[in-house]
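Quick check before the chapter quiz. The format below is the same one you will see on the exam, so make sure you can read both the input and the output lines.
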Amino acid sequence: MNLTNELARQRNRDAAERTLMAWIRTCLSLISFGFGLDKIVAAIDQATGDPGPRPGVIVVALSFVFTGILAMTAAIVQHNRELRRLSRADYVYVESPRIAAATATLIALIGLLAMGILLSNWLS
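Here is the expected output.
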């Protein structure tokens, strides 16, 4: 095997590892945000004596947690596929699914859901 090719493969493997680490940070943030949102609202409700739970907050919080879990699963699958392709002698670059675009779309939908919940609470 050519040294230049092997060094290029190693750079690609390292890039795949960095990408997976970035996805771990992103997904951990999404899951933590969803969990924290629920806990913060519950603490505010308890401090003010308001009855809980609020279904809208629960739905939005669960949506963030679900998005984090879904994106992490997709990132692991993509990472493993890339490592398998890199180990083959006939490696050919293949366009990967756009996990970032899908995650951004889900977050935008969560934002629309949250806006709808806020508007319905405000209008009622």
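If your answer matched, good. The chain has one domain: 3-123.
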